[in-house]
Amino acid sequence: MRILTIPNWSFGRDTDLLNKFRDALEEAQLDVHYLQGDVDHNRTVSAFSGESGAVFAALERLCELAFDRIDLNHHVGVHPRIGALDVCPFLSLPAASVGHAPQSAPSLPPPKASSLGPAPQPVALDRLLADVEVFAAKIAGRFELPIFLYEKSERGRHEADLPSLRKGGFGGLVGRELNPDFGPSFAHPRLGVSVVGVREFLIAMNVNIAGEDPGVAKQIATEIRNLRASGDHRFLGVRALGFSLASVGLSQVSLNLTLPDLTPVDPIVEWIMEQSARAGRRFVATELVGVIRRRDLAEATRLSVREAQIVDL
Do the beta carbons of residue 29 and residue 54 sit within 8 Å? Predict the structure, then answer.
């Protein structure tokens, strides 16, 4: 069974660790679609796919590398986080075509085409759910790390969505008795907790605007959340936050499009561009974080997409 995972890690300034990640994924012979750290978020997003056994083995190796270095007590960044491995979603993929070769990571030569194979083949959801639970239990036991299952994997013990599970951040977890699905009932003193599970596909993207002051970006993000809550069809399933990118003198509207079949990319980006212009702030660029489905590209012309980031789902 072929699967895709998009782990988010709470480090973005440790270039040595990022290089170790690249080496580990290259050795694992997986399709690496995305691997990039961000200084202001102090966060690294990875996205890779392959046969399930190889993916889970590579994830465990990355945990070994990251957990030896990350200490959330000394972590500073604009992005909310509750764990060293903050969130780790999984999706099933169609079987690969005959002769399909592993992808190289961005910045690792040579990049290759990123098609994940022909039309999707049926994959039992219960098998993926079971495999993810085995992985979560193993990581929880090995690293004494509380693991919360989310989205499709959640079993009725707690909230299922990521924003609810992340509420209060790492500081809000320290010393508080928890009810995780696996692992101890108190947060790890350095690594916090991890959120793991099978979820539907979403598009993660950023819209950057001129000016380091995040006021306009935060105002735009708040308006998106309010419009979504009011039932505005343009923003169904859209999650938004506003951040400052001090290292580059910009601010950012960070978005998750959880219903991309209903809310395509271009109208959302264009709306943000209009709002920014009205506030006297210049649009700078967009960024795709992770992967995008090939079928989304026709309505995502405002995004800069590398071939390695395109998946067939």
Answer: yes
What DSSP designation does 12 have? S
What would the DSSP string read from start to end of 227-278? HHHTT-GGGTTEEEEEEEEGGGTEEEEEEEES-TTTS-HHHHHHHHHHHHHH
Other beta carbons within 10 Å of 91: 21
pTM, rounded to two decimals: 0.89
What's the pLDDT at 124? 65
End-to-end CA gap in the chain: 14
Query: Positive or negative CA dihedral for 119, 121, 124, 129?
Result: negative
Q: State the Cα–Cα distance between residues 165 and 220, nearest whole angstrom.
A: 24
Q: Are strands 250-257 and 238-245 parallel, antiparallel or unpaired?
A: antiparallel
For 205, the token pair is 């993207």
Which of 106-115 are b and which e, b meaning 16 or more Cβ less than 10 Å from the residue's Cβ? beeeeeeebb
Cβ atoms of 272 and 281 closer than 8 Å: no
DSSP classification of residue 226 = H
**pLDDT tens digits for 186-235?**
999 999 999 999 999 999 999 999 999 999 999 999 999 999 999 999 99
DSSP states of 148-178 as a string? Answer: EE-GGG--SSS--SHHHHHTTHHHHHTT---
Question: Is the Cα torsion angle 58, 64, 69, 72 positive or negative in sign?
Answer: positive
